[in-house]
Each structure stands twice: as structure tokens, then as C-alpha cells.
Write a structure and sequence with these properties.
Length: 320
């Protein structure tokens, strides 16, 4: 069973003196915004600073002055951005960033990155970049082109793990698997002690978790099927320091790191990425909006031959 785990992501900052996203907009507004991209809200948690919605396809986080939404599968996230703009107006937006990574089967998507930014630029002028090689793992980033300058303290970290180990895949596809089993397997208590957690186990496979503590957040999404396994992490806590734990649990054949405004990226990866992983791509760019973006792709080189993958020609195969 195939599912496209790769996410699309948008972060919108608003002029806080004009609008409080956390207090001025109802849950019905956010529910409709999510529906527009063909996803649904499953549950939510909140504290004084943040509300986190767990979605049928990934997550939505809302703070007073910004919101972040990630969607996977065959969602069309630009629909949600368009809804926000049409309801509240461009003048409320302080800055917008849209990000999309390479998919396993991009031809099955309702749009490509080029389609998405053509729609966005009908409302907002911007710049687009690609981090990573086109024929390998990469991320596209579109950002609004205005006078906004990010604070150096505004840091975000992302990890994308591909082809997790057979042991990890088998564990995460066990029949009857419960949320608490997955929490223990991922060592969440070690990764994020004291965080408030909201999670969901999908049937027959898949897992999502949102976690918040004051203004801090973490979201994890797991597609564990062996033929298309993918696990994503996103947070404003330093995930690079947690790489040794994450790799020990998942043992992926490759993974990507992406950070915004981590000035010690090179030093941190040198310390925390095991030597058996080899860097395939390193990209660093200071954007005109003030964000320093670092992207790195790592692979675990094969030491021996493996078998070719056979599939059912008459079946419903995305490969065809």
C-alpha cells in the first residue's frame, strides 16, 4: 500500500497589531482552511501560546502572529493559502514562505511546485530557489519578496528520513500497534520531555504526533511501508543535536537535514551525524528575507548487492 509522505509546507506571519491568529479566528475558520486542501482536523491541543491541530494529512500550528501548516498525500496546500488571503486580505500578511520537497511519485500529485508558485504570485511577489540536486533529494523554497527581515533567533529544523530499516518498518507496521508503543519506540520521552502530546495511529499504517511546550513545537509523521518508507520531523528545538537518537531508532538508508537560521550547522552536523553516513549534497544560502538556509543530504553507502524489487504488473502500482 503506497502513501506519499512528503510534505508541502507554508508559514504565514501576520501583522500582530492588526490580527491575533490565536484569539481572533475560530476553530471553524481553521477547519475550513484545512478542508480547502482536502484534509481534515482530527484533534487538537493548546496552551497559552500555541494551538496544534493534528490533521488527516500532517499538522497545523497556530500562534498569535503566525501559523504553520504541513500537508502530505495528494493535498493541494495552495488552496488553503488562497482561502486565507481571500478571507483576510494580503495586507494582513507580514511574510509568507512556501516549501515543497521532492516526492516519491510526483506525477500522482495534483500540482507541481511551478504550478503552486504561479498561483501564489497572483497575490504575492516572491522568489523561488531549489536546495539540492534536481536528480536527487531536494527542497523548493518560495518566499515573499518584501522588506521583511527574519530575526536570527527564529530557528527551524527539519529531518527527512528515507527507507528506514527493515526492523523499524516491521515494528511500525505490526497489527494492533498502539500510540504508546510508537512513543516508546521513538523514545519521545527522551527527545521531548515535558511536552504536551497529541498523536494518532492510522489504519492500516501510519502515525502522526504533535507536541508543544510554551512556544516550542515538534511534529513527526511516519509512513512506515517498506517500499516507500518516510519519516519527517520538524521543530523549533535543535533537531540536529537529536540526530544520533533518531538515526539509532530508524536506521534510514538516507536522510536530509534542513535548517533555518542555524549558524552552527556545519559544526553541529560534524559532531552529531555518524561517520558511516556520507554527505551527497550541501547547500547554504542567505535569503533576501534574512533567513540563512542550510540543506544537507546524507546516504548510507551499500556494502553488498541486494535483490531487485518485483511488483504485480496487473496490480495498481504507482511505479507504472
Amino acid at each position: 500500500m503506497f502513501f506519499e509522505g512528503s510534505e508541502k509546507k507554508v508559514e504565514i506571519l501576520v501583522h500582530h497589531e492588526q490580527l491575533s491568529l490565536l484569539n481572533d479566528l475560530s476553530d471553524d475558520f481553521w477547519s475550513e482552511l484545512v478542508n480547502r486542501c482536502h484534509a481534515q482536523i482530527l484533534s487538537s491541543i493548546r496552551n497559552e501560546h500555541c494551538k496544534a491541530f493534528l490533521l488527516s494529512e500532517s499538522s497545523l500550528f497556530v500562534w498569535d502572529d503566525c501559523f504553520l501548516i504541513l500537508t502530505c498525500g495528494e493535498t493541494n496546500l495552495v488552496n488553503s493559502v488562497e482561502y486565507f488571503i481571500q478571507q483576510l486580505g494580503v495586507d494582513k500578511i507580514k511574510h509568507l514562505t512556501y516549501q515543497r520537497k521532492n516526492e516519491y511519485f510526483s506525477h500522482a500529485q495534483p500540482s507541481c511546485f511551478g504550478d503552486d508558485i504561479k498561483r501564489l504570485t497572483q497575490y504575492i511577489p516572491g522568489k523561488a530557489l531549489r536546495f539540492g540536486a534536481m536528480d536527487s533529494h531536494h527542497n523548493f523554497v518560495f518566499h515573499q519578496d518584501n522588506d521583511f527581515q527574519a530575526s536570527i533567533d527564529d530557528k527551524t529544523y527539519e529531518i527527512f528520513a528515507y527507507q528506514i530499516s527493515e526492523d523499524a518498518s516491521n515494528h511500525l507496521t505490526r497489527p494492533g500497534l498502539q500510540a504508546n508503543d510508537i512513543r516508546q519506540f521513538l523514545r519521545l520521552e527522551q527527545l521531548i520531555p515535558d511536552f504536551q502530546i497529541d498523536d494518532f495511529v492510522f489504519q492500516p499504517y501510519g502515525y502522526s504526533v504533535n507536541a508543544i511546550l510554551a512556544k516550542k513545537y515538534l511534529t513527526i509523521h511516519i509512513t512506515p511501508q517498506s517500499d516507500s518508507s518516510y519519516v519527517s520531523f520538524e521543530s523549533n528545538i535543535n533537531l540536529i543535536k537529536l540526530v544520533p537518537i533518531i538515526l539509532a531508532v530508524l536506521q534510514p538508508s538516507s536522510f536530509d537535514l534542513l535548517s533555518y537560521n542555524e549558524t552552527e550547522f556545519e559544526a553541529l552536523t560534524a559532531i552529531n551525524v555518524p561517520n558511516n553516513y556520507v554527505s551527497q549534497s550541501l547547500v547554504q544560502q542567505k535569503l533576501t528575507n534574512g533567513f540563512l538556509v542550510n540543506f544537507a543530504n546524507y546516504i548510507l553507502p551499500k556494502q553488498q548487492f541486494i535483490q531487485a524489487t518485483e511488483f504485480d504488473i496487473a496490480g495498481e502500482n504507482h511505479e507504472l
